[in-house]
Every structure is written in C-alpha cells, then in structure tokens.
Design goal:
The complex is a heterodimer of chains A (296) and B (351). Chain A has 296 residues and is an all-alpha fold. Chain A is built from 14 helices and 2 strands, in the order H-H-H-E-E-H-H-H-H-H-H-H-H-H-H-H. Chain A folds into 2 domains: 50 residues, no CATH class; 220 residues, Orthogonal Bundle (MetI-like fold), CATH 1.10.3720.10. Chain A has a two-stranded antiparallel sheet. In chain A, a hairpin with a 6-residue loop joins strand 1 and strand 2. In chain A, helix 5 runs parallel beside helix 9 and helix 10 packs across helix 11. The radius of gyration of chain A is 25 Å and the shape is globular. The two termini of chain A are 47 Å apart. The mean pLDDT of chain A is 87. Chain B has 351 residues and is of the alpha+beta class. Chain B has 2 domains: 239 residues, Rossmann fold; 100 residues, OB fold (Dihydrolipoamide Acetyltransferase, E2P) (Beta Barrel), CATH 2.40.50.140. In chain B, the strands form 4 sheets. In chain B, strands 6-7-8-3-9-10 form a 6-stranded mixed sheet, sandwiched between helices. In chain B, strands 13-17-14-15-16 form a 5-stranded antiparallel sheet. A 4-stranded antiparallel sheet of chain B has the order 2-1-4-5, with helices on one face. The radius of gyration of chain B is 24 Å and the shape is elongated. Classes of the chains: A mainly alpha (296), B alpha+beta (351). The interface between A and B is medium-sized, with 17 and 24 residues.
Chain lengths: 296, 351
C-alpha cells in the first residue's frame, strides 16, 4: 500500500510515465496483438508465398531453395488444376448462395418479428451448433447421406433417392456448417434497420414485396456481403467435409493436403495454396468496389 | 349508424376505437371527428394512447374494436398502402440508401406516376419545404431540421387527404422547433389539407392547432379549441397537463371562495398584492399567504405562495418594471393573491 501511494513507488512511477508518454501506452497495449499479426500471420503467409517459388528435388525429396516459376507453370498448364479450382469456386459460390437464401428469412424473423425474449433464444440456438465439433457435424451428415440414411428413408416413399456422396452432399454439409456465420451478420444488419422504414414504405404505398426489394434488401445487402466473406472463404479452404461426404471429389484444399502428405512436395503445395488466397483478394476487391465494406 | 352524417365534412372519424396489446389497453374507446382542412392536435403524456390512435389511422395497427373512417370510407381493415393518408414519422424514417430526390419520389414511383411528372412534383414539394438544391444529398448528410423537411416533402408530394405527423418536431432543438412550428402552420394553410398532429408539448399544441384532443390513459379527456382547452379545462387532468393547474379544493375552497368543490385558476390570472390591506376591486376573490419560492424567468416571475387557508398557488407576473433584484426580495414575504371571479373554474373530472 505504502509503495503504491508513495511518490517514488515503482508502480506509481510507471503509471506516471505511461500517462506522460501516450506512445508507450499504445505500444504496451498493441505489441502482443501486433506481434501475433505480423509474425504468426503475415509472416507465415509470406513464407508460404516465398516457398511457392521453390522446387523439390525429384530423387532426394529435399526442398531446393531456388527461385523459379515451375510450380505456377504446372498449375496453369495442367487442366486438372484449373478444373479443381473452378470446382472449388463453384462449391464456395453455391454454399454462399444457399446460406444467404436460408439465412435471410431466418435473420429477418429473428430481427423483426420475434419477441425480444424469443430473439435471445434464437441467437443462442443459432450459436449452439458452433459448440459441437466440426467432425461430429460432418460425420452426422455422412450418416444422413448414406445409402440407408435418414435422407433416403424420407425420400423413399416418393420414389426418390438422395444424391449420395459427392459435390451436392459437400455443398449441403458446408452450407450447414457455415450457416451461423451468415445468419449473425444479416441479423445484426436487419436489427439496425429501423421498423419505421418499413412502416414508411407501406405508408407511401409499397406492398410487402416492393418494400423488400427497394428498402430491406438494399439496406441489408452489406450485411449479406459480410456474411458471404465468411461462407465463401471458409468453403474455399475446406478439404475435410469433401473427404467425408464428397465421395471421390477433390477441391483445392485436397490438392494442397495431398502434396503436403503423400506427394511430399511442399513448394507445389504452397503454390496451390496461393490460389485461394488470390481468389479471396479478388473477391474482397470486388466487394469493396460495390461500396459494401464501407457500410459495415 | 348514419354514414352520411359522419362522412361528408369529416376527414377522419373514429367510432368506439379500442386497442389492446396483450393485457395492456393502449386505447380505451375513442370517438373523434377531425374536419376537412383542420390543423388538429392530439395532445397527451407518453403512454396516453395518442400515437397508437395515429398508427391506427395510418393503418400500422388494426383496432381491437371500433371503426376508422377516412372521408366517410371505412378503412378499419385496410393496410397502410391502400389508405389515402401519409405520415411524417418521429424519427423521419428516411431511406438511408436513397438521395433526397429518390426519397421524395418514392411514393409517386410506387403509384406509377410518369418520370417527368414525378420529377416535377418532387422538385415542387422540395421547394415547398425550402430545400431546393439538396436533391442529390443522402439523408446522412443532412441536419435534423433538413431531414424533417425531407420527410414532410416525401409525405406531401403524394397529395394525401390527411397528413399524419407523429411528434415531428420532438427531435429538434428549441429554436428550430419554433421555426418549424410557424412553417408547418404556413404550409398547412398554403396547401389546405388536414393535418393531424401528435405531440406531448402543450405549448406546441396550443400555438399550432385549430382544435386539440387531450389524451389521458387511453381516453380523450377533452376536445376543443386551444382557448377552450386552456381557459375551460374539462377535468383536473386537462387543467394540470395544459398549463399549471393551481387547484383550490376542500377546506381552502370553503374558506377562500365560500363554497365546496375543486377549482382552478391559471397562474397569469393571479395578481400579487404586496399591500395586504389594499381595497379589493369589485368581483375579485383573494387569499393571503407566504411566498415560498420566487423564480425569475426574464420576461416574467413565478411566485409560489403557501396560502394561510392551506394549499399552494403559483402566480405568474410579467416583469413590467421589476428586476431580478426586486422580485427575489419577496421570498418569505406576506402577499395577497387576487383574481377575478370569472377566471376561477370548477373542475368536475377525476384527478
């Protein structure tokens, strides 16, 4: 106590120093997160990008640290990689569209129609699946999509069959996994939309659909874009769901995984891994151009 | 029911309108006639049901019981987009992603008015509210007063039979509010449509309206011109809500006025006599008491006087000659309050 309050106490001196030098205070506050961001995140990204230009010695399997474009030439020239890339983007787009179609009505109900009490419960209900392990959820879908699974059992009376394992099953599984990441931003966006705007549109003669098209959708669009950044990027990088429910389908993530493991070609894996990064950068620039990010 | 009688001259007519939300009764049987071309105020404290009544006229709420008629047509069950009224919302409810012009044109676009006419009418509406040159701005780039004008233009451009205004000046500062009061009144006179106006500000209601309905606890306590409501309140609630009530009741009434009951005198009708023995003019009542508080307010001074006969009255005196130094000396002084008998009115309603 006396060291704390005496003028010369070390704690007090430090507090005084921090008070007089705001830069020191800022440094103390930000050095840990900045270290994390620069070293662990940007550093590893830089290492990945650098490694993409190296090659592997065919005989020894050792990494040859020599700059070259061989990996990217192979990526570009082999049509199989283009197919896999397009397929991955297609899956990510399909997941994003499916999620926004499911999430929008749910978020609208949560934000504009449910009672405040129901609203809290619904937010919790949307969040609870995030507590369960990714693998548990993916395997749950695997069981549902299996030949004797729930899906076939439900469709059988109508003379129909489920899609089985493959890309459709992958899209459904990923859409399920990332749905909360779409619902929550849209919910937050619609919550900020004042009810009086909806009243005003009706007051000026607009029916429900027109109100949706001209008021609700444009105002909530940035929130949908924010959700899509999550669903799109998470889907683009995923390689586990497709292993579990995708049958023999391959996505970019699988190519990276196989080159790290079975093929033992780390530089090529790094080159493949830059593809989704590049696609995400293009996606974010495109999103920025719509002005959606400024409204977040 | 005779629709001819209720229809022709009344822009808005409510009959036996009730509204409950679960266990809460927001509006408890309201009957109301608003005439064509009238500037009509619904005045009351928050929670008195006035906004709910407005929302039922606009169509945002459906009455639990009763009928809403607009120009004689029963619209009780019609949605807002099929009613010939427009609303200026308390928070203005401007569409944030549209510029001012698109906001004002919205209603016309919905009604499929051609592009040229739409444009012309929108510009005209914006000039009515003195906002020329702001067409390309987004609502976020406007001040509170300007937003309020856009909301007004957006409603007026549709030429509704009735314009509903929900506390439209509530969010403005005092100076701007006084300006807009004058301007709203001028616009209403210029275009001649019915304005139905919700406010909790008694001064605003008194200065702007042709007639006022005073709301309390889901009911209308009194409907009348500003002068009627102020000079002749129908209940203790109206007396208290519209101005300062100054009640004289029970034993005090017996000893001062010589009769039992509840009476009220407006503060500005009371004269503060310092000479207690001065001769009382013909037709006046008086009461002697001690000044408990003196509040100097620039143009006038408020005296709070505890009467010897019991009770407390507030007297408002214009500072014709007095300065703050003079009047503040009167604290704790013995004074006589005097007023003309016709200015005391009997109050019958419940407290």
């Amino acid at each position: 106590m006396s060291t704390l309050t005496s003028p010369g106490g070390p704690v007090r001196r430090l507090a005084g120093l921090l008070h007089r030098r705001p830069y020191l205070r800022l440094a103390g506050l930000l050095s840990a997160p900045l270290l994390w961001l620069v070293v662990a995140y940007l550093g590893s990204l830089g290492a990945l990008f650098l490694a993409a230009f190296w090659t592997t010695d065919v005989f020894t399997g050792n990494v040859v640290k020599q700059f070259g474009l061989a990996n990217f030439q192979e990526l570009w020239n082999q049509s199989v990689y283009r197919t896999v890339t397009l397929r991955s983007v297609g899956v990510a787009v399909a997941v994003t569209v499916a999620d926004s179609l499911v999430a929008f009505p749910m978020a609208f109900y949560m934000a504009k129609m449910a009672s405040p009490r129901a609203q809290r419960w619904l937010v919790i209900a949307v969040l609870t699946p995030l507590w369960a392990s990714y693998l548990v959820k993916a395997y749950a879908w695997r069981i549902m999509f299996s030949g004797s699974g729930v899906l076939n059992w439900l469709l059988d009376p109508f003379g129909l069959h489920g899609p089985g394992y493959g890309l459709p099953a992958t899209i459904v599984t990923l859409a399920y996994l990332w749905l909360p990441y779409m619902i929550l931003p849209i919910y937050a966006g619609l919550e900020r939309l004042p009810n009086s705007l909806l009243d005003a549109a009706g007051d000026l003669g607009a029916r429900s659909f027109r109100t949706f098209r001209t008021i609700i959708w444009p105002v909530a669009f940035p929130a949908v874009v924010a959700g899509s950044v999550f669903t799109f990027s998470l889907s683009l990088g995923d390689y586990i769901s497709v292993k579990i429910v995708g049958g023999r389908s391959q996505l970019i993530g699988n190519v990276v995984y196989d080159n790290v493991g079975a093929a033992n070609n780390l530089p090529f894996a790094a080159a493949v891994a830059t593809v989704p990064v590049a696609i995400m950068v293009i996606y974010l620039v495109a999103v920025r151009r719509t002005g959606a990010l400024e409204n977040l | 029911m005779n629709t001819e009688e209720t229809g022709m001259s009344s822009a808005v007519s409510l009959r036996g309108v009730r509204k409950t939300f679960g266990d809460v009764t927001a509006v408890n049987v309201v009957d109301l006639e608003v005439h064509d071309g009238e500037f009509f105020a619904m005045l009351g404290p928050s929670g008195s049901g006035k906004t709910t009544v407005l929302r039922m006229i606009a169509g945002f709420e459906t009455p639990t019981a009763g009928h809403v008629r607009l120009s004689g047509r029963d619209v009780t069950k019609l949605p807002p987009f099929e009613r010939d009224v427009n609303t200026v919302f308390q928070d203005y409810a401007l569409f944030p992603h549209m510029n001012v012009l698109a906001n004002v044109e919205y209603g016309l676009k919905v009604k499929k008015v051609g592009r040229d006419e739409r444009h012309e009418r929108a510009l005209q509406a914006l000039s009515t509210v003195r906002l020329q040159g702001f067409e390309k701005r987004k609502p976020g780039q406007l001040s509170g007063g300007q937003r309020q004008r856009v909301a007004l233009a957006r409603a007026l451009v549709n030429r509704p039979k009735v314009l509903l205004l929900d506390e439209p000046l509530g969010a403005l500062d005092l100076k701007l509010r006084e300006e807009m009061q004058v301007e709203l009144k001028a616009i209403q006179r210029q275009i001649g449509i019915t304005f139905l106006f919700v406010t909790h500000d008694q001064e605003e209601a008194l200065t702007m309206s042709d007639r006022i309905a005073v709301f309390n606890a889901g009911r209308i306590e009194q409907v009348g011109t500003p002068a009627e409501v102020y000079e002749n309140p129908a209940s203790a609630f109206v007396a208290g809500f519209v101005g300062t009530s100054n009640l004289i009741e029970g034993r005090t009434a017996l000893s001062v006025l010589g009769r039992d009951g509840v009476y009220s005198v407006r503060p500005e009708k009371l004269r503060v006599d310092i000479d207690l023995d001065a001769e009382l003019p013909e037709g006046e009542h008086s009461a002697i008491g001690t000044v408990a508080e003196v509040v100097y307010a620039g143009a006038a001074t408020r005296f709070v006087v505890d009467l010897d006969a019991g009770g407390r009255l507030v007297a408002m005196q214009q500072n014709l000659k007095a300065s703050s130094m003079d009047v503040l000396k009167l604290r704790d002084a013995r004074v006589r309050l005097a007023w003309r008998r016709e200015h005391e009115f009997s109050i019958t309603g419940p407290m």
